[in-house]
Amino acid sequence: MQERLQKLIAQAGIASRRAAERLIEAGEVSVNGEIVMTLGTKADPETDHIKVGGKLINPKLSQRETVYVLLNKPKGYLSSAADPEGRNLVTDLVPPRLGKLHPVGRLDYNTEGLIILTNDGVFTNLVASSKTVAKVYEVKVKGLPNANAVNKLRRGVTLEDGFRTAPAEIKELKHTDSNGWYEVTLHEGHNQQIRKMFDSVGHSVVKLKRISIGHIKDARIAVGAYRLLDEDEIKGFTTRGKAKS
Predict the structure, then answer these.
(1) Phi, psi of 137, rounded to the nearest 5 degrees
(2) Which of 65-69, 144-148, 229-233 has the lowest mean pLDDT?
(3) Does residue 203 share a domain with residue 146?
(4) Is the dihedral of CA 70, 240, 66, 33 positive or negative?
(5) Which residues form the domain of 180?
(6) Where does 64-206 have alpha helices with state H?
(7) pLDDT tens-digit profile of 26-37?
(8) Burial, 137: exposed, middle or buried (Cβ in 10 Å; 0-12, 13-18, 19+)?
(9) Which among 44, 108, 161, 230 is annotated as catalytic?
């Protein structure tokens, strides 16, 4: 079956899709001996010889095992497979024997909680772009927002950068005298969205933790630890109405 070259390169574990596009534009990719520099070009790894940097990637595509890791991300780790500034990466927390993995979506540098790492580009696109995969967070904020402020967030707000948030599910948890605690469910992933949402009503986020991704939950994983997803958990993202939670 024909697939876009950048998708095949990502599936082979050579580079992310974005990095693969740069390789194509730089003339590093050839199909059947001809250099391809047009993004969106398709090839069939069953019948076409695909090379990146002069090396055939077909064996990587046929032999590669897909890996799906559930990681409890600590604060102070970047949700990326590379960083020019040399910061700690979520991929540093899993052993090299699992191969080259990348995060599915992102968690902010100072946010902790569940994140999936994989080498499956198709799975990544399905989960990261889906509007039906709910992400649930525990949120601690400075001060105690009043009912009007919380209801405003539930309906959706316009952030400083102009982004209009979709309606969000917000449940009040047990508050302290000086801090509000909430469970927030989102179906979108705008950069630092929850922090910006509460900033918009005058209450900064003190602590933020993701506790579930779609149907995936696991409170037993220690911070910084991981486990492999099982087959049913992986299939759940495609068999439950594309991961309705």
Answers:
(1) -130, 145
(2) 65-69
(3) yes
(4) negative
(5) 135-213
(6) 121-129, 147-155, 193-200
(7) 999 999 999 999
(8) buried
(9) 108
Residue 243 has pLDDT above 60, yes or no: no
The overall average pLDDT reported for the chain is: 91
> Helix axis angle, 193-200 relative to 147-155, nearest 10°?
140
197-214, pLDDT tens digit by residue? 999 999 999 999 999 999
Q: Measure the CA–CA gap between 105 and 60, rounded to whole angstroms.
A: 24
Contact status, residue 208 vs residue 139, Cβ threshold 8 Å: yes
230 is catalytic: no
Residue ending a domain, among 63, 81, 98, is 63
Q: How far apart are CA 242 and CA 240, in angstroms?
A: 5
Contact criterion met (CB below 8 Å) for 201 and 153: yes
Please write the tens of the pLDDT for every residue from 44-62.
888 999 999 999 999 888 7
How is residue 54 written in tokens?
Answer: 């002069």
Kindly report the length of the chain. 245
Do the beta carbons of residue 75 and residue 111 sit within 8 Å? yes
Q: Is residue 34 part of a domain?
A: yes
Cβ atoms of residues 118 and 101 within 8 Å: yes
**122, 222: one domain:** yes
How far apart, in whole angstroms, are the C-alpha atoms of residue 75 and residue 2? 40
Domain tally, the chain: 3
b/e map 95-114, b = 16+ CB within 10 Å: eeebeebbbbbbbbeebbbb
Place of tokens 């990326």: 80
Q: Is residue 104 part of a domain?
A: yes
pLDDT on residue 240: 55
CB 170 within 8 A of CB 156: no
